[in-house]
Amino acid sequence: MNRNPKLSSDINQNKSIIKNYLPIKKSFDLIGRELIIGQSIDAYLLFIDGFAKDDIMLWILDILQSLPENKISNDIIETLIKKRIGYIEVERFTDFKQMSTMVLSGALALIVDGVDEGILIDAREYPVRSPQEPELEKVSRGSRDGLVETIIFNTALIRRRLRDPNLIFEITSVGKRSKTDVVIAYLDDLVDKQLLKEVQDKINKIDVGALVMAEKTLEELLIKKHWYNPLPQVKFTERPDVVAAHLLEGHIAIIVDTSPSIMLLPVTMFHFTQHAEDYYQNIMVGTYYRWIRFLGMLSAFLLPPLWLLLVENKELLPNFLQFIGPKDEFTIPLTIQLLLLEFGLDILRISSIHTPSALNTSLGIIGGLILSDLAVKVGIFVPETVLYMAIAGIGTFATPSLEFALAIRIFRLFLLIMTGLIGIWGFVGALIIIFIIICSCRSFKYGKAYTWPLIPLKLKPLSHILFRMPIPKINHDSNKKNS
Q1: What is the largest distance, in Å, between two alpha-carbon atoms of the chain?
Q2: Are 211 and 217 in contact (CB under 8 A)?
Q3: Sequence-ordered alpha helix ranges (H) in 313-382
Q4: What is the spatial distance between Cα 230 and Cα 190, in angstroms, rounded to a whole number?
Q5: What 3-state DSSP class applies to 22?
Q6: Which pLDDT score, from 0 to 100, does residue 120 have?
Q7: Helix (H) or strand (E) holding 388
Q8: pLDDT tens for each residue of 110-137
Q9: Pairing mode, strands 90-93 and 108-112
Q10: What is the pLDDT of residue 57?
């Protein structure tokens, strides 16, 4: 049997082949509608119920069924496309494979008896929610629209901010079964062409049944991951203004249908430390926010292991810091206490995800206040372990990227275990291992180093990371770079 047969002029034969490609009667939402054009010509309309717009469907049926026979020329397809079906996105098709893919994507297919061509009408309408501010990337001032699960809406939200003819949206499909729409977005005059070709080649070579988890599945298919490296190698965002800002810096955005998150690449570790809030505030305030954020992230990474190291090696403490450490006797080793608190924080976080919004406040009160207070009174924890782990937890939540925050948590856990087991040499050794992992991390061959611009040191780009620069200066530097 021909795997990709062409349409014939016999409509009954065409309908028979269609039934081999699509489960017309088995699946209730797949509808094949028989009708007559011009009072004598048999036709067949194929569509998915739920994707087709009802008003457009009624209008098309009315046009076709009321078409006078004397208005039909020899080339009925040409007549229908140019004179009768006054819809914007209409094209011809000749093979069943193309028709099957388009119909399952939401388009309408029309075949007519006596003609070996058909018509595809892109009158689809996906169920969507309206754009709203993303929960993970809120700002106190700025736009409140966020990306949604429909790819065409997302490209429109980006295009609204970048009305540049150099903005390119390349579309392809990934997945033998899902045939998920994937868009590669970039500014043609700013993007690194070698990196773009690498991304395009990798996407074209993907051999998978479906993108089950949308952009996350695609990320794991694009980037080689090592089990020991928790660092994110792409950045995800649900804000169209963030996507536009990264495109203007020469980045590539990958948009996957059915997902409100867009993948940005290539990235360095410092891309995960910045937030849109910095640029919606005064220059001094934005810089202050950045430094506070850096301090919070550093606390999230180092504070509990460093406190454990100093408490167990009091000789390392200067006289004015000798007050650090528990004053009362304790039965459970400090390392075990800190690990229990780590696991407790993670259980609380996971529980909050699965808890209805109306009960989240109650969960926070029970977990954060009652349980910790009772645990101290019972003697399971000393107050300082709760204090420093709480500060580390707050620092974790201050990290703009959820993926980077989780990586910091894994590194902190590793550092804590090594410090508790081996002491000062475990602390130093763990830091060296973490440093090697960070320095060896790279998402794409043609992307910058993960530690850029700190390693290798580039003072001017590093100053832009440490300080929130005025927009005119950023634009001036960008224009000089591109000229």
Answers
A1: 103
A2: yes
A3: 334-354, 357-364, 372-378
A4: 30
A5: coil
A6: 92
A7: helix 383-397
A8: 999 988 899 998 888 777 778 888 888 8
A9: unpaired
A10: 81
334 class by beta-carbon count within 10 Å (0-12 exposed, 13-18 middle, 19+ buried): buried
On whether the CB atoms of residues 431 and 309 are closer than 8 A, the answer is no
**In the beta sheet, which residues pair with residue 46?**
32, 109
**Strand 180-187, strand 118-121: pairing:** unpaired
CA separation (Å) from 298 to 208, 294, 439, 457? 39, 6, 18, 20
Q: Which amino acid is at 368?
A: G
CA dist 302 → 230, 403, 409, 427, 448 (Å): 17, 18, 10, 10, 26
Amino acid at site 367: G
Average pLDDT over residues 388-394: 90
Q: How far apart are the first and last CA of the chain?
A: 58
Long-range contact set of residues 15-19: C-beta below 8 Å, sequence gap at least 24: 15/44, 15/111, 17/96, 18/44, 18/46, 18/96, 18/99
Per-residue burial over 363-394, b if 16 or more Cβ lie within 10 Å, else e, is eeeebbeeebeebeeeebbbebbbebbebbbe
Enter the tokens of residue 155. 């490209």
Highest mean predicted confidence (pLDDT) among 34-43, 324-333, 352-361, 374-383: 34-43
What length is written for the chain? 483
Integer Cα distance of 414 and 437 in angstroms: 13
Q: Which two tokens stand for residue 160?
A: 């609204």
pLDDT recorded at residue 481: 54
Residue-level pLDDT at 370: 66
Residue 253: its pLDDT value, please?
Answer: 96
Amino acid identity of residue 441, one-letter, is C
Q: Say how far apart CA 169 and CA 162 lie, in whole Å.
A: 12
Who wins on pLDDT, 340 or 60? 340
Helix (H, G, I), strand (E, B) or coil at 230: coil
Residue 231 has pLDDT above 90, yes or no: yes
Give CA–CA dist 269/279, Å, rounded.
19
